[in-house]
Amino acid sequence: MYDASIIADQPAGRIIVIGGGASGLSCAWRLAGAGLKVILIEAGEPGGGALHASGGMLAAGFESAVELQPDHPLASAFVRFAEAASDLWPGWAERLQAESGRALGYERRGSIIPIFTAEESERAAAAMERARALGIETSRYDAAALHEAEPSLARALGAIAFPRDGQVDNRALGLALTEAARGRGVDIITGRTVTGLLRSTGRVTGVTLDLGDPLGAEAVILASGTGVIPGAPPVMAMEPVKGQMIAFAAARPVAPAHVLRGFSIYLAAKPGTRLVAGATSEPGVDDPGTDDEAIARLTAAARAAIPGLAATPVMERWAGLRPRTADSMPVIGEVEPGLLAAGGGYRNGVLLAPAIAEALAAYLGVGEDWPSAAPFSPHRPGLTAAER
User: Rounded to an integer, what distance in angstroms lies between the CA atom of residue 78 and that of residue 239?
Assistant: First the structure.
């Protein structure tokens, strides 16, 4: 819960972070490390929600070349920001592991798109063309080289790869960020919700908690994902995009050495014997449950990609809600005086978290400028047009 004395503290110099997901925890950890007094408020458990449910992908290359709409007005800006975030991860992972004493399962072996059909070959060629246009590093595997690299994979025509992609154990990440943030002095309030924003003379000056407690601050950071914060500007509204996932108990060599990013399934081996497979994409659905039909489709696709899973039962099934802004891009920076945004990671919340935290540190004057975050201002046309 929380120490009641926090409520009585003077707000001078204090930062409130709303949300204990990847972005919120990363901001809290980063800002506390710069000497700021930080309080993080999470209605559930820190590291839960979308972070706990995610696949832990650090796939700037795949996401930019395959999932990104090439005609999106922020396409090039997203590539630059995602690559900057990817470059932060080695150092972030090292420091976070050292402070928390917890292994993150961070690796950067690359992601591979296996090609099984002529149609997938055409889609892969288009992805490579987009990657070249965006300056993203790619490579190719022929059938023999792919079989050597991933012998458990079903026979394929070949593959394309994004060598700079990686992954992390998202569940370990949530625990590590929580422990490291506390180690830097962050006060974490759990089991409480924010019921409003305090404002005075045209500035956000804190929040109100669910029992009516006012909590003052010099700045409030919104990192609440799909959670609704009463009084928050409409540009901060996030559409939930549900994703259902499964996990098998499968160690290498049955589990792949790389992250496999097929056009109908992805597979990522986490530390130990946990092999994650996902994920559905269900816009506007906020039901956190799973359904048998979707789980059966994921299971069949995973076993088709890795035949060695045929006799392996599904050990876990779950769903999470990805937060998507009106234009499907992150939202970072000052919403109004005293109120900052740090969210909308959508498919890339884990990847972008360190860069979002660094950008927020810059906004608060305790970090270097992050110009690659500027295009994702809450006041950009893609969000303000949707608000109208």
Answer: 19
pLDDT tens sequence for the chain (388 residues): 334 444 445 577 899 999 999 999 999 999 999 999 999 999 999 999 999 999 999 999 999 999 999 899 999 999 999 999 999 999 999 999 999 999 999 999 999 999 999 999 999 999 999 999 999 999 999 999 999 999 999 999 999 999 999 999 999 999 999 999 999 999 999 999 999 999 999 999 999 999 889 999 999 999 999 999 999 999 899 999 999 999 999 988 899 999 999 988 999 999 999 999 999 999 999 999 999 999 999 999 999 999 999 999 999 999 999 999 999 999 999 999 999 999 999 999 999 999 999 999 999 999 999 999 999 999 999 887 655 4
Structure tokens at 114: 């296996």
* CA gap 23, 28 in Å, rounded: 9
Name the pairing type of β-strands 158-162 and 111-115: antiparallel
At residue 126, φ and ψ (nearest 5 deg) are -65, -40
Q: Is 338 helix (H, G, I), strand (E, B) or coil?
A: coil
Count CB-CB contacts under 10 A for residue 341.
28
Specify the pTM: 0.95
Cα separation, 133 vs 182, in Å, equals: 43
The alpha-carbon radius of gyration of the chain (Å, integer) is 21
CA–CA distance, 388 with 385 (Å, rounded to integer): 5
> Which residue is associated with the tokens 């994004």?
162
Residue type, 279: A
First and final C-alpha spacing in the chain: 39
Q: Is 248 left (phi over 0), alpha (psi -120 to 50) or beta?
A: beta
One-letter amino acid at 133 equals A
Tokens of 65: 């070349």
